[in-house]
Amino acid sequence: MKTEQLKQIFKATALALCLSASMPTFADAQPKDEIVAVVDNSVILRSDLDQSIAEITHQLQSKKQTVPPIEYLQQQALEQLITRQAQLEQVKRYNVKADEKSLNEAVLKVAKDSGSASLEAFQQKLDAIAPNTYSSLRARIAEDIALQRLRQQLVTSRIQISDQDVKNFLSSPQGQAALGNQVHVLHVRISGGENAVKIAEDVRKELATSNDAKAISTKFSTKDTKVDAADMGFRSLSDIPDELAARVSPLQVGQTTELISVRDGVHVLKLIERKASDQKAIVPQFQTRHILIQPSEVVSPENAKQMIDSLYTRLQKGEDFAVIASTFSNDPGSAANGGSLGWVSPGVMVPEFEAKMKETPKGEISKPFQSQFGWHILQVTDTRQQDMTQEVQERMARQLLGERQFDTELDSWLREIRNNAFVDIKDPALQRKSK
Fold first, then answer.
1. Which residues, including other chains, have CB under 8 Å from residue 130's CB and lie 6 or more apart?
2. Tens-place pLDDT, residues 181-208
3. Do residues 381 and 322 touch, judged by C-beta distance below 8 A?
4. Where is the signal peptide, in residue numbers (predicted)?
């Protein structure tokens, strides 16, 4: 999920926390709580609904927006809770969880935003307001993180971007602008007089053989019609108005646009020259091979460490790396090739592996180190500087296209989740209002 969206989630959670100071239901449900809805295997309590209504009301008031009638608020709040609970059921199904590090960072951010320097101080501050407030907030943020990870995984998997989509985007005005490409354009505006369009047509013909802006202005201006021609020089497509950029982008060098009639006159543009951005993506690459020993049901973590240490000793004595990798490595893809991972670029491997790869001199064998996948030994057999400009541009295009599609796919996925959930509204009044 995008960083900015996560920030909004944390802000909303902090808002709920502020509201909870006057609402004991934010902590443990009170005995008078009642179930207002059942969603799959979970329930929504009256206190949950009241809290959600208070949060929506506070948000509207903070934006100086009109607060709708309570009946409408109840409907909206209940629908949001149902959709959220349906997603949480999917979180449980796919066993998505917030890791402790991410959770602590998220809670600490909320703590600092509220003026607390540490989690301990934040906990004392909250629990002094109402018992269990801190644990309730922490659980809520853990749910938020898990929900975002679930959405990122499932929604992203629904987005399909073809190679042709990438190619079309990179050749579009938006893609060219994103790449920083520049165009050298001659811009002519013809204004005033009944013959403006006729003169514009003559100007366009003249542009087929001339790039002399001053001569064109002098030749075609009349008492009633003004012709302003200007050589715009090289400009990034992102600096040109979108409408004009869309006209210029598909032109070949030497071609002109069709006549563009707008309020201030008739415009015509000629593409004199085009140049791509001179920014290159030169990245270091490492030709790497490795051996992986993974703990399993039959190999304990301790035995895995003993095995990797034993293999390291054998390598130090001169045994062939490729033979040992083929025989013992638990990475079947690379083991079949003597442990070879080919040329590895930064950002591809997990942090522990990448850090060790960068610090290991060419030709030497690293000491055993651990990652989330198990214990590794690696060897960098060669290094090089590689021009990855095209790959970086294509990756940028896929990312931008994916971001464009994400919100649409998210809305579609949320509707599916909501429609497929089992929902039983217990309160008759709410049942009449619910979708």
1. 20, 21, 24, 26, 27
2. 778 899 999 998 788 899 999 999 999 9
3. no
4. 1-27
Topology alike, domains 182-275 and 282-386: yes
Q: Give the architecture-level CATH label for domain 3-159+424-433.
A: Orthogonal Bundle (1.10)
The answer, yes or no, to whether residue 28 has pLDDT greater than 70, is no
State both tokens at 221: 């201006």
- Residue 175 is encoded by which pair of tokens? 């893609």
For residue 360, what are the CA distances in angstroms to 251, 313, 351?
Answer: 50, 17, 14
- Residue 3 has a pLDDT of 41
329-337 long-range contacts (CB < 8 A, ≥24 apart) are: 329/290, 329/291, 329/292, 329/293, 330/292, 330/293, 330/294, 330/374, 331/290, 331/292, 334/289, 334/290, 334/292, 337/289
The answer to whether residue 245 scores a pLDDT higher than 80 is no
Residue at token pair 């449980």: 92
- Closest by alpha carbon to 289, among 319, 257, 321? 321
User: pLDDT tens for residues 39-92?
Assistant: 998 999 998 898 889 888 988 888 888 988 998 899 889 999 999 999 999 999
Cβ of 335: how many Cβ atoms within 10 Å?
A: 21
The enclosing H or E element of 272 equals strand 265-275
pLDDT digits 0-9 by tens, 354-409: 999 999 999 999 999 999 899 999 999 999 998 877 887 788 788 888 888 898 99
Q: Cβ contacts of residue 352 below 8 Å, gap of 6+?
A: 369, 370, 371, 372
Tokens linked to 215 = 């001569």
Q: Phi-psi bin for 284: left (phi > 0), alpha (psi -120 to 50), beta?
A: beta
Q: Structural domain boundaries of the chain? A: 3-159+424-433, 182-275, 282-386
- 374 vs 296: CA distance, rounded Å: 10
Task: State both tokens at 172.
Answer: 């579009």
334 pLDDT band (50/70/90 cuts)? very high
Q: Return the residue matching tokens 């050298």.
A: 184
DSSP state of 249: T
Residue 360: left (phi > 0), alpha (psi -120 to 50), or beta? Answer: beta
On whether the 282-386 domain is CATH 3.10.50.40, my answer is yes
Q: Strand, helix or coil at 75?
A: helix
Instruction: Strands of 340-422 (E only): list them.
Output: 340-344, 369-371, 374-387
Q: Does domain 182-275 have CATH number 3.10.50.40?
A: yes
Q: How many CB atoms lie within 10 A of CB 113?
A: 12
Would the pTM of this model clear 0.85, i.e. be above it? no
